[in-house]
Amino acid sequence: MPHSSPHAPASPTATRRTVLAGAAAASGAAVLPLAFASPAHADDLLLSTDFSSGTTEGWYVRGAVSLSVNAEGNLLVEGRTATWNGAAIDLTSHIEVGARYQLRVLMRLPSGTEAADLRTTVQRDAAGSTAYESVTWNTAVTPDAWTEFTGTYSITQAADQLQFYVESASSLTPVLVDNFTLTRIEEPEIQDLPPLKDVLECDFPIGCAVEPREVVGKPAELLAKHFAQVTTGNQMKPEAIQPTEGVFDFANADQIVAFAEANGMRVWGHTLLWHNQTPAWWFLDAAGNPLQSTRAHRALLLARFEAHAKAIADHYGDRVWAWDVVNEVVDPEQSDGLRRSRWYEVFGGGAYIGEVFKIARRVLPRKVKLFLNDYNTEFPDKREAVYNLVQDLKRKRVPIDGVGHQAHVDYKRDPQLLGETIDAFKRLRVLQTVTELDVSVSDYMEESLPATPPERLVAQGWYYKELFDVLRERSRDLESVTVWGLYDAVSWLRTWPVPRPHEAPLFFDDRLQAKAAYWGVVDPSQLEPLP
End-to-end CA distance of the chain, in Å? Predict the structure, then answer.
């Protein structure tokens, strides 16, 4: 997810360069013992620093900080006065458009400090504009062990400068840095396999949520081969489209939309209203004070939503065929079944949901479909809460066209649960779609293993087979099925709710190769027997 941070100073060019042969690059974050090992794999190691020279080896200050190399040969970053202050290294001369890279660094806190969330980011400067692109999102770090921050990175357009840096979420703690590597991932050929979109053509369009980095290079080739629809993962969320009131930025979303149109793919919009990834200004008055539950502030919120939706409608029209108008507004643990978000607080209830659907219907082209999207709808309590909300909206003649079932499931969850939910919503005569499908291979949410157990990938393949049997039986009731991510290395599950480097929830692995999950959908006879 992009996030805001001040500009960094200009940097010297990093000088260390090593070229090695090797195999795959991993993604995610993992905690290592204090005596850590070198990376197990490397495709083309372009840049590395381990501070064994006693110097900062090309790293430079970012903001009001002090850099030094301690007696143990680690880079010490201290004196930070803002969360974005840290240490940075220039990558500009090493990064090419369309290529994929692995960025890896170890971080630890000095003894005697409290745990803090740290993250790694690239600042990309191009043609007078600056973007801040997360490589590894907020991850807890302690003084007790080195934590490995690993992620893939690519650019879709040439940049004037690229700076990789370490920062924190909120703490101003000193940070220790070591063993940084920049590796170019050797791209394999895209396999000559039956395209998923052709296999499922008679059932429903198969879609994929992507970021701009997936519409260039080999990932773009994989995407165009297998999928008929795209969702703009993070790039149409409120903070991405309108980070500052009245200032709209469609650049990243436009890259995905242009790619989709060039390849004959439909575009799904995600999302107009969400309690998360929404800029703080949405909920502040002109004086910068939090909005209150007053008639004036409710009117202000709706006016802001209308301005936001109208700008999107003016920009995209019906090029985006459907929108998640509201996302994750249901909480079955509440007496009225609704999430206690800032929208809820200002309106003193859920009246805003119907109002924003009416606004969306007024400003978007008539042919564009309007959806309510939520997770865990396969569970009976959430199913009932969402059903009651949609039933109430329809009773009030709110212009809602359909319901999106996210379907973030795990490989042990009963596939029939989702089928039962689809059957239930047929009674409401609304369109239905699966919007964010992935199948976790964790035995529990906080599980974090160094590698994926092979037998779980086999079990996942059979799970996908059973799940798609359920979905195909209901193909007349589904507008589309979308998976949340193109390949495992870019899955959100690698870093949520804890670092999980073993997570592999998608059809294709880190090297863009088909897994048992793919064969479970395309040809189950190719699957190994269940363990």
Answer: 38
Catalytic residue annotation: 328, 374, 436
Q: Which of 249, 251, 229 is nearest to 238 (CA)?
A: 249
Q: Which two tokens stand for residue 291?
A: 């909005």
- Report the candidate in 251, 265, 183 with the shortest Cα–Cα distance to residue 220: 265
**Sign, Cα dihedral of 350, 360, 485, 238:** negative
Whole-angstrom Cα distance, residue 528 to residue 516? 8
> To which residue do tokens 């779980």 refer?
456
Q: Kindly tell me if the per-residue pLDDT of 34 is higher than 80.
A: no
In the DSSP assignment, the letter for residue 502 is T
Q: Are strands 206-210 and 481-483 parallel, antiparallel or unpaired?
A: parallel
Quick check: 328 and 375 in contact, CB under 8 A? Answer: yes
Distance CA 111, CA 108 (A): 9
Q: What is the pLDDT of residues 383-408, one digit of tens each?
A: 999 999 999 999 999 999 999 999 99
Distance CA 174, CA 247 (A): 35
Sign, CA dihedral 185-14-107-116, equals negative
Per-position DSSP letters for 255-291, written without gaps between them: HHHHHHHHTT-EEEEEEEEESSS--GGGGB-TTSPBP
Decide if 516 contacts 527 (C-beta within 8 A): yes
Q: For 69, what's the count of Cα atoms within 13 Å in the CB-facing half-sphere?
A: 15
Predicted structure pTM score: 0.84
